[in-house]
Specification:
The chain is an alpha/beta fold and about 210 residues long. The protein contains six helices and seven strands; from the N terminus they run αββαβαββαββαα.
Length: about 210
């Protein structure tokens, strides 16, 4: 079945289409790193040059405690053409990872004039917990009334084992700010309470 892109800027409707025209290792790369028995997955489906800095944020957030998945644009230019909208993002390694995780956090970059975060997704409890922690920092955080609700069950953040995750949209100014550390540390404290049960065996990691 051929999908139509849900985003007018997307060149490819899904990973299968992208992989048919782009070359892994030259145009894009996939990174998968598992973390013991963690049931938390930190993913950046638009990493590398697609939504800059989201890969670095995800790596720092995951460290060695949480599972990590990155889809990274590595072209010299025009990485935006590797963007597959979140509801159509179906890269197999990512789906395999999150199918074994109860908690999925998808890190994205968005356009905004100030240092802010927009939280979406179907995991209301985690979303509110993250919002409460972030409101103890100097950063502005919004959980409703914004254009990134991520309430579609097909959104990649909601396709984990629980069927509910969180999408974190981070503005450009914040991705370039030293205040980014406050965001990451606040999120890590909340995620640390999510547990580490992870009985399933995951695929072998893809090297950096």
């Amino acid at each position: 079945m051929i999908l139509s892109p849900m985003n007018n800027h997307d060149r490819y409707a899904n990973y299968q289409q992208l992989a048919a025209y782009e070359t892994e290792g030259r145009d894009y790369r996939r990174v998968l790193r598992t973390a013991g028995r963690s049931n938390v997955a930190i993913i950046a489906p638009h990493g590398g040059g697609i939504e800059p800095v989201t890969s670095g944020i995800s790596r720092t957030l995951a460290r060695d405690e949480f599972n990590l998945y990155l889809f990274e644009g590595i072209k010299p230019r025009s990485n935006k053409y590797l963007h597959v909208t979140s509801r159509n993002f179906d890269e197999p390694c990512c789906l395999e990872l999150i199918s074994r995780c109860d908690t999925v956090i998808a890190i994205h970059g968005c356009k905004a004039e100030d240092e802010c975060i927009f939280l979406g997704g179907l995991d209301t409890d985690l979303k509110q917990g993250l919002a409460a922690a972030l409101r103890n920092t100097p950063l502005r955080v919004e959980t409703q009334g914004h254009k990134f609700p991520a309430l579609d069950p097909d959104n990649i953040c909601n396709r984990g084992r629980s069927g509910a995750g969180v999408q974190v949209e981070i503005s450009g100014p914040l991705r370039r700010s030293s205040n980014l550390n406050a965001l990451i540390e606040a999120m890590r404290k909340v995620l640390a309470r999510r547990g580490t049960t992870f009985p399933a065996i995951l695929p072998s990691p893809v090297p950096y």
